[in-house]
Protein 1
Amino acid sequence: MQKSRRWTISFIAAAAAVALTGAWAYSQMPVPPDFQLTQTKDYTPVTFSHKKHAVKNPDCTVCHVKIFQMKKGTTIPGKPFLIADMMAGKYCGTCHNGQKAFAVAECVKCHPKK
Ligand code: HEC
Ligand code: HEC
Ligand code: HEC
């Protein structure tokens, strides 16, 4: 009994250590300022705001690196996210599906009119 309890405790401690190391790595990073995604030539540039996404350490893992790489323009190097992919629930469309957040169909919310 005693022995298996000790095992359980050390297992939990090890799992917590792994989880905390990930959180710690992100907690060392500043939340980046707003930036523009400018690879789209045929439509207005899109501003992405970490702040407006109410991002807090260590929430970073919601997007990084499951959905987006942690360097501007590197998730799909040299190419913008395709609107067709977002409509199909990828990239911004993971959340912008009209349920978790406003739908990709609401173009001007991301591409302000010139
Ligand atoms: C809602 C999704 C989302 C969350 C949550 C998020 N990010 Fe990002 N982050 C992005 C996107 C989108 C990019 C740009 C990726 C690209 O262009 O390929 C990015 C890029 C970055 C970059 C690179 C900026 C540059 O100028 O190259 C850093 C650094 C970064 N994120 C840090 C963080 C940190 C730290 C957190 C948590 C505090 C966080 N991110 C949470 C979406 C997110
Ligand atoms: C949730 C935000 C968001 C919404 C809403 C949105 N877009 Fe985009 N769109 C983006 C991002 C981000 C990119 C990639 C920007 C970059 O990398 O330069 C993009 C890229 C594009 C591109 C270039 C890539 C391609 O597929 O040819 C076009 C065209 C485009 N959007 C049109 C639209 C239209 C039309 C709508 C409405 C039906 C729309 N967008 C709605 C965020 C959005
Ligand atoms: C992890 C989920 C998630 C992802 C991924 C995500 N968003 Fe959002 N976004 C949200 C939520 C939630 C809101 C706030 C609710 C709403 O406005 O519907 C929001 C709000 C916004 C807003 C409105 C901000 C304001 O002015 O209040 C813009 C613009 C936006 N997102 C653009 C983007 C773009 C561009 C991408 C991809 C590069 C993206 N989002 C990816 C969840 C996400």
Protein 2
Amino acid sequence: MDSVIDPLPRAAQAQGPQGFDYLIVGAGFAGSVMAERLASQLGAKVLVVDKRPHLGGNAHDQHDDAGLLVHPYGPHIFHTNSAEIFDYLSQFTAWRPYQHRVLASVEGQLLPIPINLDTVNRLYGMHLSAPEMGRFLESVAERRETLATSEDVVVAKVGRDLYNKFFRGYTRKQWGLDPSELDASVTARVPTRTNRDDRYFEDSFQAMPAQGYTRLFERLLAHPNIHLMLQTDYREVAPLLPWRHMVYTGPIDAFFDHRHGRLPYRSLAFRHETLPQAQFQPVGTVNFPNDYAYTRVTEFKHLTGQQHAWTSVVYEYPRDEGAPYYPVPRAENAQLYRRYEAEAETLDQVTFVGRLATYRYYNMDQVVGQALATFRRLAKAHRSVMERPLALGAQGLRAAVMR
Ligand SMILES: Cc1cc2nc3c(=O)[nH]c(=O)nc-3n(C[C@H](O)[C@H](O)[C@H](O)COP(=O)(O)OP(=O)(O)OC[C@H]3O[C@@H](n4cnc5c(N)ncnc54)[C@H](O)[C@@H]3O)c2cc1C
């Protein structure tokens, strides 16, 4: 990586007489993994542009004024069941083992979430054993013929009262929609446990990059064939610089100028606070399903393991307007996405990858997996990409976007 902010003339110089083989839009996980693979495995010349002033997309982290490592776009906890993805990223970072724990503030108590034996016993003042909890859940669960919505999934597992206390309010705040209006997929991945396991995730690999995400991204992009331009919208440079193929990781509807309508995204406002105390709360995240406008509060030191006399926390306020953070999982949105996807598939010279470009509610590891798979497909076409005349990129952009 040769600069943080690079004006066009230097990028033009860096391309050399051959130009760039690949123009990559976005320096998040999707774009950075694609850049690393294309440069290191194929020897391709790669230009990465991002309109933000930093690397890492939403996974970016940085030190705040007090010197505490924080995640400006909300807490990012790495977890995966894929040894391939973990091994791949391990080339660029050491890890700090970390198992995330979350408590929900319900009726004046802080109770473990996902719901486990302690949650139920403490909420109802009971002393159930694991098998008794299983029978208790069966007795309160509501029978549902089909599990079409998020409400169906939860009430069929834990019944109405636990649904109302732990899920309904949180989901309504988070998505601005009632769980009965959201796809089953949103809550289907939240487990319920009859034991006392209070870890938020059950994946076989759970760890944080030892020196933070931004350091990981710096190493991913350190290859000499990779050139980086920050604070640059790709539309400013794509028509001016010669390139052969584009990898696009921004919102797919924006790529096509929203010509079929806007894909809905849920956004967040973050309120960061630094406090003159060593610890603020007992675990990494406390959820507030029923009170306040924010959904949760996260204290970063639990995640990062940083030793410091002060601590930093972030409050998350969901909202409709703002940066596109979460694709909204509803059937009609998936349908609208498919119209954009069909157009994307007609473009030989552009590949779409990542959470926003494929409108999928993906975690970091899934985005890395998607990028590695996309690279393998693209590598097969690499020879024909290299045979394309360089001007094709700019012409292709005009044909694809500006028609
Ligand atoms: C609040 C929050 C918490 C999360 N927590 C977790 C977690 O704990 N664990 C987990 O695994 N995942 C988590 N995620 C998901 C994780 O952030 C994503 O899976 C991952 O960062 C997606 O990477 P990406 O490269 O696809 O997209 P992004 O990180 O969004 O990167 C896309 C990049 O493209 C750039 N871009 C867009 N348009 C243009 C343009 N026109 N020109 C130039 N650049 C452009 C953007 O600036 C952005 O940097 C969380 C997400 C959010 C929002």
